[in-house]
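Ticket reopened. Same input as before:
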Amino acid sequence: MERLVFDVAALVAIVFAGLMVIGRDPVKSVLALVVSFFALAAGYVLLLAPFIAALQVIVYAGAILVLFLFVLMLLNVGRERPDGMRRPIQMVLGSLAVLLFAGLLLGMFRATSGKIPFLARPLSEGELADPAALARLLFSEYLLHFEAVSVLLLAALIGAFVLARREDA
Amino acid sequence: MTAVDWIVIVLRVALPALVLPVFVIPLTWLERRGAAFIQDRPGPNRVGPFGLAQAVADMLKMFNKEAVIPATADRMLFLLAPAVAVFAALSTFAIVPYSSSIEIAGKHVPMIGADISIGILYLFAITSLSVYAIVLAGWASDNKFALMGGIRSSAQIISYELAMTTAVAGVVLAASSFHLSDVVEMQQGTWLGFIPRWNVFPQFFGFVVFFVAAFAETNRLPFDLPEAEPELVAGYHTEYSAMRFGAFQMAEYVNVMVASAVTTTLYFGGWSLPGFHPTGVLGAILSLLVFMAKSFFFVCVFIWVRWTLPRFRYDQLMRIGWKALLPLALANLIWVAALETFRMPVR
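Engineering reply: fixed in the latest deploy. New output:
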């Protein structure tokens, strides 16, 4: 049963991520991404991390993508033209990027023989299930990472503000 | 699956999921009679006793009208939007404890759809889904008024969700739990023997922020800018007719009921009353009645406010959300944190 739910969720996530990339209509691309995120959230629930799943839906599907949609609708972005958009150089560079990424992934898996190397120690089962335990972990063991990410996000926010600001304002 | 399991499923899942849509019918009647009372006119009073059957007649009418899909609309998304609206509205109630727990065949059965560890966060996750219903309806209709409604709605809901979640963070902090059942639990008993230990007393401003934001989240007056009829015809549901329009109306009323139920649970002790210790089935029924009475009060406030206050201008709406509600919610959060530190020093 769990396996079935995982397979369905993974399939939905991948298919809709693909639709997001292929789609010509920006609004529909965003919606495909929303479905993909919901499927990812289902995956988190199966990993016994319902808190992460809730955050995934609230932050990504609920806030960030609504903002995307808001901007798309406000600017009334039309369908992408299917012809004349792809120059040969784009195809070459795109293929190179894909190859590079695939090589990177493969190399990573070989180097770590499939185990995830990012954690200082393997998490026990309850630690992601309980929001309080997760918070304790976040504010003790991973405090430095947490604060570093918050500074990074702040820098991005200020950067966006500086870039988008009008000169005369 | 034994018979007991089936009873549990019916009580915990099917009953609330089926009862909420049924309550929509008297609620529309209540809204129209309430509006008429406030505006000093009779209101619908001809069909059935006190005009009660008017709501049923309207529903039958909705089902029999022609359902038009505009030629230039995006068919799939146009049909999907009302379904998402109803789905999101009905599934939010799952985490609200609506009565005290009972024992069935030696099993302890809490009266709540799903007592999950993320509790109130689930509510916010589903609420964020309901934004898509409005945005999709606005976009798929291919109508400028509908699109304007969709755009307004997305900006409005993001702005007010922030204040709302910050206000609720105070309650979560006080209860040290996301479970709404724990939130009800901590509000039992009294202070000084006569003040109920309801969250509304220590967190009055949190309650104010939450309740005001609830009006914005349910798109009710004075925050119904997504469907402001003097400017936008009917906003995001301009192009919807028959029961598809009815689905949006139904979602709105279910949202009003859920918002009232959640307000009751978070700030007014849920199904509990001071000095009332429910046991067994009779206790569960009594506490369900207490819960419904409290929620009904807030539903009435929703109706009362709708027919009393004029609509805000869009810039006023944004100013209230960001410059009044959010700072108030943050101040409330700091206040609760200070209280908790005083009450229970950091271990």
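The two ends of chain A are 59 Å apart (CA to CA). The CA atoms of residues 160 and 166 of chain A lie 12 Å apart. Please confirm and we'll close it.
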